[in-house]
Structures are given as C-alpha cells and as structure tokens.
Amino acid sequence: WRIMAGKVKWVTDIEKSVLINNFEKRGWIQVAENEDWNFYWMSVQTIRNVFSVETGYRLSDDQIVNHFPNHYELTRKDLMVKNIKRYRKELEKEGSPLAEKDENGKYIYLDFVPVTFMLPADYNLFVEEFRKNPSSTWIMKPCGKAQGKGIFLINKLSQIKKWSRDSKTSSFVSQSSKEAYVISLYINNPLLIGGKKFDLRLYVLVSTYRPLRCYMYKLGFCRFCTVKYTPSTSELDNMFVHLTNVAIQKHGDDYNHIHGGKWTVSNLRLYLESTRGKEVTNKLFDEIHWIIVQSLKAVAPVMNNDKHCFECYGYDIIIDDKLKPWLIEVNASPSLTSSTANDRILKYNLINDTLNIAVPNGEIPDCKWNKSPPKEVLGNYEVLYDEEMAQSDGHDRELRSRSGQSTGVKGNRGRDSGKPVLTTWK
Amino acid sequence: LEPDSGLSLTIARIVQRLQGSSLHSQLERQARVSLHKPEIKLESLKEDIKDFLKTSGWEKKLQNAVYSELNVFPSPCHPAAPPEHMKEPLAYMRKAQGSWEKRILKSLNSMCTELSIPLAQKRPVNEQKELLNKWNEMGTDEPDLSLFRPVYAPKDFLEVLMNLRNPNYDSGEQPSFRTHLGLIQVPLKVKDIPELKEDFSELGLTTGQLGIDDSAQVPPEFFENEHVRVGQKVLAEQDSAAAQQYVRQGCPTALRADLWALILNISNQPEDILYYEQLKSNVIQHDLLVDSLIYKDVKLTASNDDYYFVFEDYLYQVLLCFSRDTSVLEHFTYSSATPPKSYIRGKLGMEEYAVFYPPNGKINYNSFILPVAPLCFLYHEPPKLYQIFREMYVRFFFRLHSISSHPSGIVSLCLLFETLLQTHLPQLFYHLREIGAQPLRISFKWMVRAFSGYLATDQLLLLWDRILGYNSLEILAVLAAAVFAFRAVNLMEVTSLAAAEAVLADLSTLKVMPLLQIFLFATVT
C-alpha cells in the first residue's frame, strides 16, 4: 500500500487505448469508480451524474475530472447560440466597440455563428428569415446528438412542416431535449480545395473559465468530404457531400482508410499562403483564434467554474470562399477513436499534452493549484488566451489593438513555438 | 570551334523558334499601335519604337522568352553534328535508350492484345457526355483496372541503368580503392564537392536561405523581410533571369506561384486557356489505352498520399490532357527518347499513316503522378496548373525517365549520388554494400520522383525552388547523399536491406536546406 500511496489513481468509462496507454505510461494505478480516485476521464453522461442534485457527490481536493459540470452551455448547439446572442447583446448595451455593427446591421467582429433558430420555439422567426432568401439552404441538427446523426438539409418550408405543427399546438408539448432542433443557415459557399469541401477540427483546452485560460492544440486538422462538393439542389440528400464528420464519411464508397480524408492545419496554411497570399491567411487564422476565444468568453459567466474541472473541446469550424471562418459547433467529447495510424498518434499526443497541463508533473493533483503550468509542459499546445496576463497588460489595450487588428506578428505562426501566445490582441 | 559561330547559331535558332510565335505577333501589333503615339517620330522610327517597347515592358517579355529558350534548349554542339547528337551525343546511350523503348512498347502491345483493347478509339456520344459531366470528379469513378498493370516499375528501369556499359571503355585495371563500388558502371563525368560548392554557392553558410533563416527562432528582420521585399520587386519587374537568381535562396510561400510561372515564362494568355480546352475536348472524344494506365497509377499513388489525395481529380485532368498534347513532342529534339509510332491498321511501316502514340509520345506514368501533385498546392486553376506542369516536364522531369549522358539525366544523378557517398562516407557505403543494401537501391525511387511523395510538401517546394533556380536536377543527388549522411549512425548498425529501408522509410520530418548546407559546406572532406 505504501508504494502505491503516491501514485495517481485513475478511472475511466471510455475504453479507448489512447487514454489508457497514457495513464499507464505515467505509472498511474487503475481503480474502480467507487474506490478512491484522483483522476476520472468520464463520458458526458457520467459528469451529469456526478454533479446532479440527486446522485451527485462532492469531489475532494485531490480529485480532477475532465468536464465542467454545465459544459452543455457551450457544447449544446442551441445553448451555444443562445449564450453568444446574449453575450453580444450585453456588449452592445455596454457600448463596447466589439459589438459594433455595419450598415446592414450585422456585427462586424462578432458575426461568426451562422444565423440560427431553435425549433419549434422560434419557428415563426425562422420563417421570416427564410422568406428573405427563399433560395437559401438550411441545415437541421438535433440538439442532443453527435457524429452527424439526424442531420438533414432543407431548402423548402414544406420539409419542416412537422415543426410548424408543433409550434402551433396550444397545449403544452413536452419537448425532451432529444426532439429539439436547431436550424442554421447552411454555408453553401464553403472554401473548396481540389473541389472538395472540408471543415476544421481544432482542439482547445480550458483549464479555468474565470479567469479564462485556454490553450489551442497546434495540430488540428481538416476533414475532407470524400465526394465532390456541388451546391446543386439535387444533391441535398447526399449526406456524404455535405457532412464532413468522419463517422459519416467512413461509410461513403470513396472513403480511404490510409489517410482518412484529413489534412494537417499546417498543410492548409501552406496551401492558402501559396494560393491566396500571406496576409489573408494570417488574417484567417487570427480570426479563427478570435472566434474561439469569444465563444469561451460568451459562456464564461454562466459556466460553473468548478476547480476540479478542466475540459478539452473539439471545435468544428468551416471556412467560406471569402476566407471567413464560421463556428459550427463545439464538442465536449471529441472522438478518441482513430481512423488511421497517423490519427492514433495525434490523439495519443493530444491526451498526453492535455494530461501534462491538467495534472502537473503527473502527481496527485491539488485542485487548489493556480492552474498556471510552466511553458515547457505545453507540448503541442499554445496559450490561446490568458485573461490574467491580458488584464495585467492593461484592459484598454484590448480595444485599441482589436480595432486596428494587425496580421503577421510572429506569435501568429502557431506551429512554431517561438512565442507562446497566439493572439495579436489581448 | 569559334565561339562566334556558336553564338550566331544559337541566335539563329532562337530567332527561328520565336518567329511566328504569339509573342512575335503581339510585338508586331504593339509596334503598329505605337505608331499613333506622339513620341514616335518618323525620322527616328526604329529607335523610338525600341524605346517604346522597352518602357512598356514588352522588351522584358522578349527577354524572358529568349532566356527561356536558352534554358530549355541546349546549345548546338557543332554545326556539322547530326540532330541525334543534340538528343544524345553518346552512341551507346542512344542504343540503350532505343532498346528500353522497344521493351516498353512490346509490353504495351502485348497488354493490348491480351486484353483485346485498342490503343485508341473514339468514344460513343453518350459516353462523351458522361465524361464531360464527371470531368471535375473523375476520382469518384471506379473502373475495373485489375487487369492493367503499369508498363514498368522504377526498379525495372534501375536494372537497365545498372547494365549500361560503355563499349569503348576498358576498366581492365585491378580493383582498388578507386574502383567504383556502386551499381552504375559507366564513366560519366560528375561533379565533386568542391565543384558543387561553387555551383551552389548561394546555398552557403553565409547566405540567407528560406528553409533555414526563416524559422521561428530567427527574427524576420535578419533576412526574411528583406528577402520578401526583393521577391516582390522581382515580380514587379517581371524579369525571368532575376527571378531565377532569386529563387536560389528560396521562395516566400506567397510569392512562389508567381515566381515559378515567371521563371518558366508562363503568363495568362487567353490562347493558353483555349489550348487546354482543346486538349480537354480531345480527351472527351477519344479514349486511349494509356488513360487506364493513368487512372491506375493515380489510384495507386496519389489517392493514398497524406497530402495529395485532395487533388486526385486535378491529377486526372492534367495527365489525361497531357497525353493528348502534341506540343510535348518538341522536347524529343533534345531528349534521348523517341516517341513511339503507331500505324493505322493495315498500313504498318508506311510513314504517311504513322501517328505518334500516345499523341504526346509518353507511355508510362508511374513516376509522373507524384511530380504533378505538389504543383496543386500552388495553382488551383487547371489550365495554369497544366501549363506549369508541362513546362516543368519538358525542362526537367523528362530527364528522369530516359537514358542519357546529360548531367541532369537520371544516369548522371545516380552516379553523382554514388560517387558522393563513396567519396565522403566510404565506411557507410562499404558497410551497406556488404549487407546487400546498395544505397542506390533505396535512393533511386526518391530521385526518379524528384522526392515527391517522400518529403513534406513545404520542404519539397523549397527543394524545387533550387531546381528551378539552378536549372539542374543535380541537387536531387546531393540531397539523397545528404540524407544518407544524416542517418549514417543508424545505418551503420543495420544488417539487412530491409532494415536499411526501414531506417530511410520516413523522410517526412526532414528539413531539406539544413541537410544540404551541412553536407556541402559544413562537412570535413
């Protein structure tokens, strides 16, 4: 017993080798959930139980978990949109320059989520918007599902008749979260490479929300659709063309198992710099960092900033053909399944670097620590935003540098680890 | 041979080639238009028009065209030399290339007969329509290609090169430390390190390089910013020669596409787009046997590549058009290869009924796929991509697939590689040879594909910057030797060819410029 006393005891309910190998290589000891544990990598169902009113229990100082109790404020599509809208309105009320709008009433700096409505609640609002552009395409996503399940595209009001009926019923219709949908304007002018559509998956680690401290993993990747993209309406039903989730693509005829339809972000950068130029590429990546930080700031006030928690999110971003990035969704449980050998290596390293930051020195954690790891342990992570550091540099710097947003400062070259901070603005 | 007559021959040839070109007619048109300008006076007409052409940038365009011709076409060796000497001066090389070609043709013909597929046939109209619709996504097609096999593999080609012998050369001396230990046994002159250092002087330790001096640890003020500024100036001046000099230190990623186009003298002419469309319609109308070989090769190689799979569809478009492009036949005047001829059925041997098959004269595509793919990172419009690839092919890549004595030909590159290795890493060379792992067996596939598919794309592009800058492929051999030098410690410990292959299997993490610099400039010789 004495020998084991100093080692971290871990539990997980996700049987994935990239996790387990990482625990074992640190010499941590596997225990059962009902035993004394220090580190629990749990699924989102389990975190619900741990923090629920009925079944929950208090975590002690030497216990760390990999989710924030109400992460769904960010990771449920409808709540994410709600929080961002709320955040924007608050900034507008304060008169913040960040909430500035252009002549069409669109937010200049905070318009990064495609127009979205909840169904059936906002059905009428949606119809109003739809009629402004009757030839537009919209994407319907169930709020509670992942991996591309239950998603479909529509371009006619008749295709969502069901939600119209539901909204009109006068009696209370119990809406389990599984039946609620969000409907978003579909980005039908995505940036294509080689004629193919793709999205970006970026990993972001949040160690605390207040003050906000987040890290971005340098080795994000692009997921390509295996079938050529066409915006034609006859292809609307072909999910392989439109959705890029690996889980869906894997079943397309053309799915290739050696490369899994993925590119590294550095490939993307090389391609864009070569074909579009350095300034616009830097601007694009700057904007991507910006929208991630803004999304976190938007939910920070409502997040339960429990000190036992950290979280590694999977951000899904689409770039349109004007090189504008759009935030599509944030995943609390990014897939840890590997579709190729390279993938396996990437995810293994991701978990490794995450653990190095969340559980310093691999020792029994003390949740009261200041959550400020030294630069050397970051691995492939880079500091995306550190609110404490930013505030100590003066608050007004943020506003000044944001409106004169510059492009190619050294720190923007995310993949080289010269300077740790990614952003040109604070 | 007096230098003057050589020069005047060259001038005459260039004039002949440019006469009747679209540049010529554009210049004429510009000159005529300039007659309306007030600054053109009748008394000094010739001078004034010349000045006008200079200030309006047309002289620059002419300069670039001349420069391009000088780069591509070798100077005539002697006024009395027969044309095949321009293709290849050494008789035994010509003979070897001829037999190799015969072998390839035989293989192709027997495949045709076995599968009862004609070499070429006109497509039925509905098939034409279908192909036109699918033009941008041929990658989604899954034709049954199991019966097709590549006409030859790189190792077959290597076998042929290994068996080359100069019948006039008597190496009857006893084996000594001077004996060449490698696979190539022909006495071609290759450069040694002092000569390479001179030729590649811009890669030296005291000159800034992209690929070294632009890393994150180096503040951009030291080199990168100024280099970018100079690059922009070169592009503004539209000077091919200056561009070629400039890229020896590497291209900034944002400027590379334009710089390469400038060096290759490719501009956005509407007639080039038309030409591409014409090729495309040729593809639609006629089906060639080589098309299936192209499909198969793309499926086998690029579709599985981590970087290039995205561009699979572009590869089909470019290569199918390429095979129809008869302008490629021009390069056969300075290539040791000869395009195969095919005869209309029943008219075998009658020259009036001979056609080149395929129209561009190139049969095997196994090694082409990968050299096209990196270009997709720079050019995303098919017509431009096509032109760049074609020009790269007729300037450089064709030399990797034919037997010749040219310093950039594959034979010389192999010999250069082996000589460098044997001279500077004799212990390693000897060890590898003893365990049955002749170094060339491993490095051949790198060189024959110009390292495409082996290096990370950004590194590959930095390497190709230097190919363009020095107008030579020798750097491929130097890099191959540098890679062996870099992994020498591990290689000394292996005891089999398979283990040696494993040590050198993954080059994707290598940084090309530091390796080259260390090998050329920082190794004690």
UniProtKB/TrEMBL annotation, chain A:
Localization: Cytoplasm, Cytoskeleton, Cilium basal body
InterPro entries assigned: TTL/TTLL_fam
Reactions catalysed according to its record: (L-glutamyl)(n)-gamma-L-glutamyl-L-glutamyl-[protein] + L-glutamate + ATP = (L-glutamyl)(n+1)-gamma-L-glutamyl-L-glutamyl-[protein] + ADP + phosphate + H(+)
GO CC terms, sorted: ciliary basal body; microtubule
Annotated keywords: ATP-binding, Cell projection, Cilium, Cytoplasm, Cytoskeleton, Ligase, Microtubule, Nucleotide-binding
Listed GO MF terms: ATP binding; tubulin binding; tubulin-glutamic acid ligase activity
One Gene Ontology biological process: microtubule cytoskeleton organization
Family, as annotated: Belongs to the tubulin polyglutamylase family.
Subunit structure: Part of the neuronal tubulin polyglutamylase complex which contains TPGS1, TPGS2, TTLL1, LRRC49 and NICN1. Interacts with PCM1, CSTPP1 and LRRC49.
Protein name, as recorded: Polyglutamylase complex subunit TTLL1
Gene: Ttll1
TrEMBL record, chain B:
Residues annotated as domain Rab-GAP TBC: 250-471
Listed Gene3D superfamilies: Ypt/Rab-GAP domain of gyp1p, domain 3
PANTHER family cross-referenced by the UniProt entry: TBC1 DOMAIN FAMILY MEMBER 19
Protein name: TBC19 protein
Gene (name only): Tbc1d19
